[in-house]
Amino acid sequence: MPGDTDKTCVILKRQVVISASLTLGTCELEEKNKIVYLGSHDGSGGQSSPWKDASFQLKCPLGYGYGAMHSLATGAYDLSGGYQSHAGVRNKPVTLQINPLNPPIAAVPGTMDLDAIPGRATGYGIQLAWGDSTTQSEPPAKPVNFNTRMKASELNSNFYQADHSGRLPGNRALPVGADSTIALSARYVRIQGATVSAGQANGKIEVLASYE
């Protein structure tokens, strides 16, 4: 927006998810608080701003106890430890969810309102879409569906998903050394019918990712 001196941004913020079971791991962002600078944008013509890269990387813990040995006595007086077997509790596939900290704008998929601060811009929102910022279509093919879980494997094929037999991935979210980047793009988008005015145009989201 005019007069915005390149301080407009979307903040990707980590939030710890408390699970009902300690055997379910909770993922983190590699970069705990990520700032994406959308830059200044002249909104007088009503056009959207260029897409900017808002991608992030996930770091997920190993599954709790998977592959460990446990013993089971074969009788009340069995002192030998009985037979042993591997623990088979597996992590489920990683899912993630984007929560906007500003109200969503239903008329434009994947779009949230700007921060309600003095001197804020009007007439535009911040739109988020899955995928590389250099290959986005108009409108975007995969706008973010806020507050809704989806499998990380749908966005990055390196992440494990259940196989054809229904078994779950095991103790890792993805192979050792594999790229865990989730491609995300952000831009300013015009909200039809709203008055356009210059000012600060910021927004914040939370990225929640865990084994589900």
Describe this structure in words.
With 212 residues, this protein is mainly beta. It has a single domain, classed as Fimbrial-type adhesion domain (Immunoglobulin-like, Sandwich), CATH 2.60.40.1090. The protein has strands at 9-14, 28-29, 33-37, 52-53, 56-59, 69-72, 83-86, 94-100, 111-112, 124-130, 150-151, 181-182, 184-190, 203-211. The strands form four sheets. A five-stranded mixed beta sheet has the order 3-1-14-8-11, with no helix packed on it. Strands 4-13-10-9 form a four-stranded antiparallel beta sheet, with no helix packed on it. A three-stranded antiparallel beta sheet has the order 2-5-12, with no helix packed on it. It is elongated and about 50 Å long. The two termini are 40 Å apart. 27% of the residues are buried. This is Fimbrial-type adhesion domain-containing protein. InterPro entries: Adhesion_dom_fimbrial_sf, Adhesion_dom_sf. It comes from Phytobacter ursingii. One of its GO terms (cellular component) is pilus. One of its GO terms (biological process) is cell adhesion.
**What's the story with the biggest beta sheet?**
5 strands, mixed
What is the general shape? elongated
Strand order of the largest sheet: 3-1-14-8-11
Number of domains: 1
User: Mean of the pLDDT scores?
Assistant: 77
Proportion in β-strands: 25-35%
Number of helices: 0
What percent of residues adopt helix (DSSP H or I)?
Answer: under 10%
Uncertain segments: 1-24, 163-168
CATH superfamily: Fimbrial-type adhesion domain
Written as H for each helix and E for each strand, in order along the chain, the element string is EEEEEEEEEEEEEE
Derived from helix and strand composition plus strand pairing, the structural class reads: mainly beta
Task: Write down how many β-strands occur, each being a DSSP E stretch of 2 or more residues.
Answer: 14
InterPro entries: Adhesion_dom_fimbrial_sf, Adhesion_dom_sf
Protein name: Fimbrial-type adhesion domain-containing protein
GO biological process, one term: cell adhesion
